[in-house]
Amino acid sequence: MRKIIQSLVTFFCRPVVLAGAFAIVMAGLYAFEKMAAHMPFVAMVITAISAALFIITRKFFFSAYFGMATVSIITIASTVKYRMKGFDLHVFDFGFTGEDPAAMRFLLEGYAYLIVPVIVLALLSVAFVTMIGVFEPRSATGWRKRASMLLASSLGIYLAYPLDPMEPRYFHYLGGFNATSFFVSTLDLQYQFRRSEFADRLNNVPQQPPYEDSVECGDPGNRPDIFMVLSESNTDPRNFPQLHTDGRFDDSFLSDDGLLHPLQVETFGGGTWVSQISVMSGLSSVDFGVQAPYLTTVLEGKVRGALPEVLARCGYRTVSLTPVKRSFVNEAAFMESIGFQTILDYDDIGASEYAHRDDFYFKAAEAFIRDHRRKGGGPLLFTLKTMFTHSPYVDSLLAKNTLSPISFGGDAPTDEYVNRMLATQQDFRDYLDVIRSLTTERGSIVLEYGDHQSYVTKSLVDEAYGGNALQDLRSAAYRTYYTVHSFGYALDMDTFPKDELDIGYLGAVLVKAARLPTSPMYRDLIELGEYCQGRFHDCADRDAVDRHLRKRADSGLLNVF
């Protein structure tokens, strides 16, 4: 056996074999990157990793194969993450997800079919490079030459850097550049030690007079119960002409005014918490750049005056129901920090899996609401997230829930996704009937909004609209909807725009339409949304947005400095 291994090592330690392996690896990495101009950077990263290890081990071939294996595994892992979340692997993921047991369990339970092959490939790579490392003799190359290789490759990385110096890295991570993104993201480690890009931006805005620290509760008799539903991964499938919906969704996404109200979100394929943060706090996650996917951690304890806090100061009981565990991506801690008094998590509602049909969550909400009513509780802000439509789609939840699948003309995962949306719409209609039956003299308002789309729609968007849609936040990849329904309460439906509304304004528009308790900050946010015609991050007068955000910071409502 030893002779066989030594023969293999001898074979792989030939310069011509190493050159061939490098060519094959680069061809494979190009298939993941799909951008020829980025490949010199990839080659320099491999060379730098190899050179650094060569300095330490003095084993040239071991170091070279280690560099190729490392970049290849990271690229494949980034591809898997991009497929699931629409955001490439980032250096922050190791702290945000890697140290979160609930998030790790969620990923392993739902995406083992993608993750396990990567782990197996990584183990095989470790075995291969270990074999080379054990049997390869040390090189006689002096440390100066070894160090010069690292210096040259480091200079090569600098010269081959794939972005323009002033180009935001955030959009690179949205582009599916799987071989380069992780290594580009190492530049973001600077924000662990100094203030963020967002803080730098606001620091250049003149100081603003602070908002008065007050809330306007209004007439105590004008406090309807508010029920918000984040419909996980839902969008309007009629946006994709390739799918044959045959009228099945024609009545699904309409509000009380009979209209479809489009909503523009800021995440794709995953990151549900990003959408929820925007609705509750009136912020655009994109403004935070590379920190956007990690805001539940970044902003914990740093946002005041959010919608649940305003309502709580006016006597509302604020409750959030989540289908995951409290510790998942630090979500519960963040929600409590912005004014939610009660968090009902996976354990509280008696969940046994992450992918219950939506009626499970609606029944849990009904049980809480009835108990609240029996105890003579006051007005409610009750938010919940559903889960049935979330990926993956390798197992048929339709069959498990005795639902008959319908062919919509997509591949198997796409059809599973659209069928799940059909089921969720039926469950939501049933929930509306429950809320109608539970409505008191206060009246009730139900705001439902679609979350990020599923990864399966990316090919549909690219096919229908061309290009890489994920790099354009105005594209159909980020388009979903919101619906508004009221029972026993008069809503001003004309307040809700007919055109696209950015998700950061959704809470503010509801406040105005329903004449809810408000604050000076929310009045300003309402005016900003109208002035910017429903656009937040890319408002035509971006200076107006920055002044609003700086005023929040100067009022102690947003701690970013």
Structure report:
The protein is α/β, with parallel strands linked by helices and 561 residues long. Helix content is 48%, strand content 8%. It contains 21 helices and eight strands. The chain has helices at residues 2-12, 15-33, 39-57, 60-85, 93-96, 101-135, 143-160, 169-173, 181-185, 197-203, 272-281, 295-298, 307-313, 331-337, 358-374, 397-400, 412-438, 458-465, 506-514, 520-531, 542-554; strands at 225-231, 261-264, 317-321, 342-344, 380-385, 444-450, 479-487, 501-502. Strands 4-3-5-1-6-7-2-8 form an eight-stranded mixed β-sheet, sandwiched between helices. The N and C termini lie far apart (62 Å).
Keywords:
561 residues; 8 strands; globular; 48% helix; single chain; alpha/beta; eight-stranded mixed β-sheet
Q: What is the string of helix and strand elements? A: HHHHHHHHHHEEHHHEHEHEHHEHEEHHH
- Give the overall average pLDDT: 91
Q: What is the helix fraction of residues, given as a range?
A: 40-55%
The number of E-state strands comes to: 8
Strand order of the largest sheet: 4-3-5-1-6-7-2-8
Q: Report the radius of gyration as a whole number of Å.
A: 26 Å
For this structure, the quaternary state is single chain
Contiguous uncertain segments of 5+ residues: none
- The assigned structural class equals alpha/beta
The span between the termini is 62 Å
Overall form: globular
Biggest sheet, in brief?
8 strands, mixed
Report the portion of residues in β strands.
Answer: 5-15%
- How many helices? 21
